[in-house]
Every structure is written in structure tokens, then in C-alpha cells.
Amino acid sequence: MKKESMGMQQVIRMKGGVGEESHARNSIPQAGYYPLCFTTLSSMSMPLLEQAVLDLCCTTLPESVAIADLGCSSGPNTFCAVSEIMTIIYKRCCQLGRSPPTFWVFLNDLPGNDFNAVFKSLPAFHERMRVKNGEEFGPCHVAAVPASFYLKLVPPRTLQFVHSACSLHWLSQVPPELLNKQISNKGKIYLSKSSSPPLIDAYAAQFQRDFSLFLRLRVEEIVPGGRMVLTFKFRRTPDPVPVESYLSRDQLAQALQELVSEGLIAEEKLDSDNVPYYEPYTEDIVTEIEKEGSFGIKGLEIMALPWDSLC
Question: Gene3D superfamilies in the record, alphabetically (predicted)?
Fold first, then answer.
């Protein structure tokens, strides 16, 4: 990985601990994703994540099932997805008269993630699983994988199920055109309505490279017949900077520019800092999956989170 990307791994991460500014205390919007995934989104269809897990159970499950959560962070949301995935598998095995498998859970996030807090919460997690599923619930082993998910994470053909939520809109790095100053994003740190076409194209190209790499890496790590459910922010329209995306960021830009005018931030510092963040259009996602060719799309669901009521 390039030096710039390694630096990004060390800087772009969620804040650990349990203080007022920690991710654990400021991750309510992400938590809103889970009820939507595990309750019926419409009377005609089962939630995609639950259906994907049940589809996996229709195959011959091995004695050990490996689950990876990519971009797990720390705090109350960390075990939400994996606990539900394991519960669905356990209950389905009981219904089918199968012996429940041993679970291996790989929690992945950047090296700076507060994995100490994650592992301190393990006893409470195990107790919740026993209360929820009974004393017969099988063994569950948890391991941390501190690395970018744009790298290889586990040995080939290890995983039966991969889950990632609220993470893949984060890029591996700022587009190289910004790093080498071929183009600029003066006074802003995100894409905005005033962004130039070359800047927008650079971010789109970086997402394509990153998502394509992500898919190629996961193909090697997932067993044949395995499942993967990915949830991330995206655009509902082809417009690269729709109003719903740029309004709050323009307010942030105005606040930063005010700090520059007050002499609290150097103007060149603001002009050189950019966030490796891109919200793709739905067609961008489908195109990259079809181009890679190893994954089939079993379902694509659009979920609207009411941010104002969650914050």
C-alpha cells in the first residue's frame, strides 16, 4: 500500500473510548440500520440480511462457521450484526435438527480502532447470547483483524459470511490527483455543489478502484456458496452532489472557512486537507459487481434512515 494510504489508515478512524466525543456515544444513526435490516421492510419480502443468512443455512453448513464484520468500529453497535447472524443460524439449525456450528467471528477495522474496548465487552456479549438463545448455544470465538479492508484479511476460503455496514463509502485514500495537486478543492474538504468535473471524476475513479479491489479480495476469502451483505451510503440520483449530500457539508465548509478568517486555521492547511469519502450511485455499485464477475446480486434494497430523528 502506498505511503499516503498507510497514513490514512492511522488517521481516518472512529474515536475510541466512551467519552462525550467517542464513537460509542455518537453512533446512533448507524444503529438505526439494524432494526431496518432485521424487521420486515415490506409485507412481501424478508429483510435482505436475514434472507442471506437463511440462504446460507440451506447449504450444508460445516462444523465451524466463520463470519467477518468489516468496519466493526467500537461501542454498542459492534456486535449487533454478528449476534443476529449467529442467532438466525442457531435457530435455523435447531429447526432442521442439525447440531449448531462453532462460530468464528472476525472483527475488522483500522489499526487505530479501540479493540481494547471491544474485547472488554466480550463477556457481556457472550452472556447476552446465552440469555437470548439458551445454554445450548454453541462456542463462539472472536478475533480482531486490525487492517484496512482494502487489504487481504484472512486466509483463502475462510469465510462463510461477510457483513459490512456504514463503511464502504470510506475510500482507501484521497484521489491521487489531489495528493499531487493536479486538481484542488479550495476551501472544502468534501465534494460540494461547486466541485469541478475533474474533481468529481477523480473521486468516482477512486471509488471504482477501491470497490473493485474490495470485491477481488473478498472473492479469495469467501468459500464457494458463501454470502456477503454490504450496506453503505449512496446517492439515489446520478447527480454526483445531490442536495441531501452537500447541504450539511457546505455548512461544515463555511465553519472551517470562518476559522481561517479568524486565523485559527491556516488557509493552506484547509486547502490541502480532504476527506476520503464518496457516496456512489446505485448503478456504480451494480456495474463494479458485474464487472468483477464473481458475485451474483441476490437483492438490492434502498433504506431511508431518518437522520434528524436519530441524532
Answer: Methyltransferase, alpha-helical capping domain, Vaccinia Virus protein VP39
